[in-house]
Amino acid sequence: MSITVFGSVNLDLTVSVDRMPEPGVTSHATGFLKGLGGKGANQAVAATKLAKGPVRFVAAVGADAFGDSLRASLDGLGVDTSDLVTMPEHDSGIALIHVDATSQNTITVVGGANMAWSSEGPDDRCFESCKVALFQLETPQDATIAAMRKARAAGATVILDPAPIASSGMDALLAEADIITPNETEAAGLSGIKPTSLEEALDVARSLCSRGPGTVIVKLGSKGLAYACKDGQGGVIASFKVDAIDTVAAGDSFNGGLAVALSEGMPLDAALRFASAAGALATTKKGASEAVPDRTAVDGLLSD
Ligand code: RIB
Predict the structure, then answer these.
(1) Whether the CB of 136 sits within 6 Å of ligand 1
(2) How many CB atoms lie within 10 A of CB 172?
(3) Relative to the CA of 93, which ligand 1 atom is closest?
(4) Listed range (10-14, 76-80, 277-281) with the worst mean pLDDT
(5) Does the pTM exceed 0.90?
(6) Domain residue limits, the chain
(7) 240 vs 218: CA distance, rounded Å
(8) Residue of 252, 269, 294, 304 with catalytic role
(9) Mean pLDDT within 90-108
(10) CATH for 2-22+29-303 (3.30.230.10, 3.40.190.10, 3.40.1190.20, 3.40.50.620)
(11) Can you tell me whether residue 159 is helix, strand or coil?
Protein backbone atom coordinates (compact mmCIF):
# COMPACT_ATOMS: atom_id res chain seq x y z
CA MET A 1 0.00 0.00 0.00
CA SER A 2 1.40 3.41 -0.74
CA ILE A 3 -1.37 5.80 0.38
CA THR A 4 -3.77 5.51 3.32
CA VAL A 5 -6.66 7.93 3.90
CA PHE A 6 -8.26 7.91 7.36
CA GLY A 7 -11.36 10.04 7.46
CA SER A 8 -15.01 10.76 6.95
CA VAL A 9 -17.63 9.58 4.51
CA ASN A 10 -20.92 11.47 4.20
CA LEU A 11 -24.07 11.49 2.18
CA ASP A 12 -24.01 15.00 0.68
CA LEU A 13 -27.35 16.75 0.19
CA THR A 14 -26.49 19.76 -1.95
CA VAL A 15 -28.82 22.58 -2.94
CA SER A 16 -27.89 25.22 -5.52
CA VAL A 17 -29.13 28.69 -4.61
CA ASP A 18 -28.79 32.14 -6.16
CA ARG A 19 -27.50 33.51 -2.85
CA MET A 20 -26.80 32.05 0.58
CA PRO A 21 -29.90 31.90 2.81
CA GLU A 22 -30.35 34.57 5.49
CA PRO A 23 -31.97 33.83 8.86
CA GLY A 24 -35.77 33.83 8.71
CA VAL A 25 -35.91 33.61 4.89
CA THR A 26 -37.49 30.76 2.91
CA SER A 27 -36.28 30.55 -0.68
CA HIS A 28 -36.46 28.21 -3.66
CA ALA A 29 -33.36 26.23 -4.66
CA THR A 30 -32.29 26.24 -8.29
CA GLY A 31 -31.04 22.64 -8.15
CA PHE A 32 -30.44 19.60 -5.93
CA LEU A 33 -27.82 16.84 -5.87
CA LYS A 34 -27.49 13.79 -3.62
CA GLY A 35 -24.14 12.01 -3.65
CA LEU A 36 -21.01 10.63 -2.06
CA GLY A 37 -19.02 13.11 0.03
CA GLY A 38 -17.07 13.55 3.22
CA LYS A 39 -13.57 15.00 3.18
CA GLY A 40 -12.02 11.57 3.72
CA ALA A 41 -14.05 9.88 0.98
CA ASN A 42 -13.35 12.70 -1.49
CA GLN A 43 -9.62 12.48 -0.77
CA ALA A 44 -9.71 8.69 -1.13
CA VAL A 45 -11.56 8.95 -4.46
CA ALA A 46 -9.03 11.55 -5.66
CA ALA A 47 -6.06 9.43 -4.63
CA THR A 48 -7.61 6.32 -6.21
CA LYS A 49 -8.31 8.10 -9.53
CA LEU A 50 -4.90 9.78 -9.66
CA ALA A 51 -2.56 7.13 -8.24
CA LYS A 52 -0.76 4.42 -10.14
CA GLY A 53 -0.48 2.31 -6.95
CA PRO A 54 -2.88 1.09 -4.27
CA VAL A 55 -4.89 3.37 -1.96
CA ARG A 56 -6.46 2.27 1.33
CA PHE A 57 -9.54 4.11 2.71
CA VAL A 58 -10.17 3.67 6.43
CA ALA A 59 -13.58 5.03 7.44
CA ALA A 60 -16.92 4.26 9.06
CA VAL A 61 -20.56 4.26 7.97
CA GLY A 62 -23.67 3.63 10.05
CA ALA A 63 -25.80 0.51 10.07
CA ASP A 64 -28.44 2.15 7.87
CA ALA A 65 -29.55 2.38 4.25
CA PHE A 66 -27.33 5.45 3.68
CA GLY A 67 -24.33 3.35 4.75
CA ASP A 68 -25.14 0.72 2.11
CA SER A 69 -25.49 3.38 -0.54
CA LEU A 70 -22.22 5.13 0.43
CA ARG A 71 -20.38 1.80 0.33
CA ALA A 72 -21.84 1.07 -3.13
CA SER A 73 -20.82 4.55 -4.38
CA LEU A 74 -17.24 4.07 -3.14
CA ASP A 75 -17.11 0.65 -4.81
CA GLY A 76 -18.47 2.20 -8.01
CA LEU A 77 -15.68 4.79 -8.04
CA GLY A 78 -13.06 2.06 -7.60
CA VAL A 79 -12.19 2.78 -3.95
CA ASP A 80 -11.03 -0.26 -1.95
CA THR A 81 -13.68 -0.60 0.80
CA SER A 82 -12.02 -3.46 2.73
CA ASP A 83 -11.32 -1.08 5.63
CA LEU A 84 -14.74 0.62 5.62
CA VAL A 85 -16.31 -0.47 8.91
CA THR A 86 -19.99 -0.36 9.87
CA MET A 87 -20.62 1.17 13.30
CA PRO A 88 -23.67 -0.48 14.87
CA GLU A 89 -26.06 1.92 16.64
CA HIS A 90 -24.81 4.92 14.64
CA ASP A 91 -26.22 6.75 11.64
CA SER A 92 -24.08 7.43 8.58
CA GLY A 93 -22.56 10.90 8.25
CA ILE A 94 -24.57 13.54 6.41
CA ALA A 95 -23.56 16.91 5.00
CA LEU A 96 -26.02 19.69 4.18
CA ILE A 97 -24.46 21.92 1.51
CA HIS A 98 -25.45 25.21 -0.13
CA VAL A 99 -23.69 26.31 -3.32
CA ASP A 100 -24.44 29.85 -4.52
CA ALA A 101 -24.29 31.48 -7.95
CA THR A 102 -20.67 32.55 -7.37
CA SER A 103 -19.77 28.83 -6.82
CA GLN A 104 -18.97 29.36 -3.10
CA ASN A 105 -20.34 26.92 -0.54
CA THR A 106 -21.34 26.47 3.09
CA ILE A 107 -21.36 23.00 4.63
CA THR A 108 -22.95 21.66 7.83
CA VAL A 109 -21.88 18.15 8.80
CA VAL A 110 -23.73 15.65 11.00
CA GLY A 111 -20.82 13.36 11.91
CA GLY A 112 -22.69 10.15 12.89
CA ALA A 113 -20.51 7.05 12.49
CA ASN A 114 -17.49 9.19 11.51
CA MET A 115 -17.38 10.45 15.10
CA ALA A 116 -17.79 7.00 16.69
CA TRP A 117 -14.13 5.89 16.51
CA SER A 118 -12.61 5.03 19.89
CA SER A 119 -9.56 6.96 21.11
CA GLU A 120 -7.30 4.16 19.79
CA GLY A 121 -8.28 4.98 16.22
CA PRO A 122 -7.95 2.38 13.46
CA ASP A 123 -5.68 -0.65 13.66
CA ASP A 124 -1.90 -0.27 13.10
CA ARG A 125 -2.34 -2.67 10.17
CA CYS A 126 -4.03 0.13 8.18
CA PHE A 127 -0.68 1.94 7.88
CA GLU A 128 1.52 -1.03 6.96
CA SER A 129 3.71 -0.18 3.93
CA CYS A 130 2.15 3.29 3.80
CA LYS A 131 4.26 6.03 2.19
CA VAL A 132 1.83 8.93 2.55
CA ALA A 133 -1.14 9.14 4.96
CA LEU A 134 -3.97 11.69 4.74
CA PHE A 135 -6.12 13.00 7.59
CA GLN A 136 -8.82 15.64 8.08
CA LEU A 137 -10.92 16.66 11.10
CA GLU A 138 -14.33 15.07 10.57
CA THR A 139 -13.23 12.23 12.89
CA PRO A 140 -12.64 12.54 16.69
CA GLN A 141 -9.44 14.39 17.57
CA ASP A 142 -8.06 11.66 19.86
CA ALA A 143 -8.68 8.93 17.27
CA THR A 144 -7.11 11.11 14.57
CA ILE A 145 -4.01 11.82 16.67
CA ALA A 146 -3.66 8.10 17.44
CA ALA A 147 -3.96 7.29 13.73
CA MET A 148 -1.42 9.97 12.76
CA ARG A 149 1.05 8.50 15.28
CA LYS A 150 0.55 5.02 13.83
CA ALA A 151 1.16 6.36 10.33
CA ARG A 152 4.34 8.10 11.46
CA ALA A 153 5.54 4.97 13.25
CA ALA A 154 5.09 3.09 9.98
CA GLY A 155 7.37 5.65 8.27
CA ALA A 156 4.67 7.50 6.33
CA THR A 157 4.62 11.21 5.49
CA VAL A 158 1.61 12.55 7.42
CA ILE A 159 -0.59 15.17 5.71
CA LEU A 160 -3.30 16.90 7.76
CA ASP A 161 -6.03 18.98 6.15
CA PRO A 162 -7.14 20.92 9.27
CA ALA A 163 -10.76 21.07 8.13
CA PRO A 164 -13.13 21.78 9.70
CA ILE A 165 -10.91 23.77 12.04
CA ALA A 166 -11.52 23.08 15.75
CA SER A 167 -11.63 25.76 18.45
CA SER A 168 -9.31 23.73 20.71
CA GLY A 169 -6.77 20.92 20.52
CA MET A 170 -5.16 22.04 17.26
CA ASP A 171 -1.59 22.18 18.61
CA ALA A 172 -1.66 18.46 19.49
CA LEU A 173 -2.76 17.69 15.92
CA LEU A 174 -0.16 19.99 14.33
CA ALA A 175 2.56 18.28 16.36
CA GLU A 176 1.84 14.97 14.60
CA ALA A 177 1.75 16.37 11.04
CA ASP A 178 4.58 16.63 8.53
CA ILE A 179 2.47 18.75 6.18
CA ILE A 180 -0.68 20.82 6.78
CA THR A 181 -2.90 22.29 4.05
CA PRO A 182 -5.24 24.95 5.54
CA ASN A 183 -7.39 27.23 3.39
CA GLU A 184 -7.69 30.90 4.34
CA THR A 185 -10.38 30.28 6.97
CA GLU A 186 -8.44 27.45 8.58
CA ALA A 187 -5.21 29.47 8.40
CA ALA A 188 -7.04 32.26 10.26
CA GLY A 189 -8.26 29.77 12.87
CA LEU A 190 -4.69 28.54 13.40
CA SER A 191 -2.81 31.84 13.25
CA GLY A 192 -5.34 34.55 14.09
CA ILE A 193 -4.63 36.23 10.72
CA LYS A 194 -6.85 35.71 7.67
CA PRO A 195 -4.59 35.96 4.61
CA THR A 196 -6.15 37.84 1.69
CA SER A 197 -3.16 37.78 -0.67
CA LEU A 198 -0.43 35.28 -1.53
CA GLU A 199 2.13 37.51 0.25
CA GLU A 200 0.07 37.39 3.45
CA ALA A 201 -0.46 33.65 3.01
CA LEU A 202 3.32 33.18 2.77
CA ASP A 203 3.82 35.06 6.05
CA VAL A 204 1.14 32.92 7.74
CA ALA A 205 2.69 29.71 6.33
CA ARG A 206 6.11 30.73 7.67
CA SER A 207 4.71 31.47 11.13
CA LEU A 208 2.76 28.19 11.29
CA CYS A 209 5.93 26.22 10.47
CA SER A 210 7.16 27.00 13.98
CA ARG A 211 4.14 25.16 15.47
CA GLY A 212 5.23 21.64 14.41
CA PRO A 213 4.66 20.75 10.76
CA GLY A 214 7.73 20.74 8.53
CA THR A 215 5.71 22.12 5.62
CA VAL A 216 2.69 24.46 5.65
CA ILE A 217 0.65 25.01 2.50
CA VAL A 218 -1.93 27.82 2.68
CA LYS A 219 -4.52 27.47 -0.10
CA LEU A 220 -6.26 30.62 -1.34
CA GLY A 221 -8.52 28.98 -3.95
CA SER A 222 -8.51 30.84 -7.27
CA LYS A 223 -5.68 33.12 -6.05
CA GLY A 224 -3.24 30.20 -5.74
CA LEU A 225 -1.24 28.99 -2.75
CA ALA A 226 1.74 29.84 -0.58
CA TYR A 227 4.01 27.31 1.08
CA ALA A 228 6.81 27.38 3.61
CA CYS A 229 9.12 24.67 4.94
CA LYS A 230 11.20 24.52 8.09
CA ASP A 231 14.37 24.27 5.98
CA GLY A 232 13.64 27.75 4.57
CA GLN A 233 12.21 26.58 1.23
CA GLY A 234 8.99 28.37 0.28
CA GLY A 235 7.14 30.45 -2.26
CA VAL A 236 3.87 31.00 -4.03
CA ILE A 237 2.17 29.10 -6.87
CA ALA A 238 -0.51 30.65 -9.08
CA SER A 239 -3.77 28.80 -9.59
CA PHE A 240 -4.85 27.21 -12.87
CA LYS A 241 -7.51 29.28 -14.65
CA VAL A 242 -10.67 27.22 -15.10
CA ASP A 243 -14.42 27.93 -15.31
CA ALA A 244 -15.44 27.14 -11.71
CA ILE A 245 -19.06 26.21 -11.05
CA ASP A 246 -18.83 24.41 -7.67
CA THR A 247 -15.89 24.53 -5.25
CA VAL A 248 -17.05 21.58 -3.08
CA ALA A 249 -14.24 18.97 -2.82
CA ALA A 250 -11.65 21.21 -4.52
CA GLY A 251 -9.54 21.12 -1.33
CA ASP A 252 -10.03 17.36 -1.03
CA SER A 253 -8.93 16.82 -4.64
CA PHE A 254 -5.89 19.00 -3.91
CA ASN A 255 -4.97 16.84 -0.90
CA GLY A 256 -5.52 13.58 -2.78
CA GLY A 257 -3.35 14.91 -5.61
CA LEU A 258 -0.64 16.03 -3.20
CA ALA A 259 -0.51 12.59 -1.57
CA VAL A 260 -0.21 10.90 -4.96
CA ALA A 261 2.49 13.27 -6.21
CA LEU A 262 4.58 12.88 -3.04
CA SER A 263 4.14 9.10 -3.04
CA GLU A 264 5.57 9.12 -6.58
CA GLY A 265 8.60 11.06 -5.37
CA MET A 266 7.83 14.38 -7.12
CA PRO A 267 9.72 17.35 -5.67
CA LEU A 268 7.52 19.64 -3.57
CA ASP A 269 7.02 22.40 -6.16
CA ALA A 270 6.00 19.89 -8.85
CA ALA A 271 3.76 18.07 -6.33
CA LEU A 272 2.03 21.37 -5.51
CA ARG A 273 1.35 22.09 -9.18
CA PHE A 274 -0.06 18.57 -9.63
CA ALA A 275 -2.28 19.03 -6.55
CA SER A 276 -3.39 22.51 -7.71
CA ALA A 277 -4.39 21.12 -11.09
CA ALA A 278 -6.48 18.41 -9.37
CA GLY A 279 -8.14 21.01 -7.13
CA ALA A 280 -8.87 23.38 -10.02
CA LEU A 281 -10.43 20.66 -12.18
CA ALA A 282 -12.74 19.61 -9.32
CA THR A 283 -14.36 23.07 -9.42
CA THR A 284 -15.46 22.59 -13.02
CA LYS A 285 -18.01 19.90 -12.11
CA LYS A 286 -20.90 19.76 -9.66
CA GLY A 287 -20.84 17.53 -6.60
CA ALA A 288 -18.11 16.21 -4.31
CA SER A 289 -16.60 12.79 -5.07
CA GLU A 290 -18.26 12.83 -8.49
CA ALA A 291 -16.35 16.02 -9.36
CA VAL A 292 -12.89 14.61 -8.62
CA PRO A 293 -10.72 14.53 -11.78
CA ASP A 294 -8.77 11.55 -13.09
CA ARG A 295 -5.08 11.31 -13.99
CA THR A 296 -5.60 11.98 -17.69
CA ALA A 297 -7.38 15.26 -16.94
CA VAL A 298 -4.73 16.40 -14.46
CA ASP A 299 -1.82 15.48 -16.74
CA GLY A 300 -3.66 17.26 -19.59
CA LEU A 301 -4.06 20.52 -17.62
CA LEU A 302 -0.42 20.37 -16.53
CA SER A 303 0.79 20.01 -20.11
CA ASP A 304 -1.46 22.81 -21.56
O1 RIB B 1 -14.87 19.09 1.50
C2 RIB B 1 -16.17 18.84 1.01
C3 RIB B 1 -16.86 17.87 1.92
O4 RIB B 1 -17.05 18.46 3.19
C5 RIB B 1 -18.25 17.48 1.48
O6 RIB B 1 -18.24 16.38 0.61
C7 RIB B 1 -18.99 17.25 2.78
O8 RIB B 1 -19.40 15.94 2.99
C9 RIB B 1 -18.03 17.72 3.88
O10 RIB B 1 -17.40 16.68 4.49
Answers:
(1) no
(2) 14
(3) 8
(4) 76-80
(5) yes
(6) 2-22+29-303
(7) 16
(8) 252
(9) 95
(10) 3.40.1190.20
(11) strand
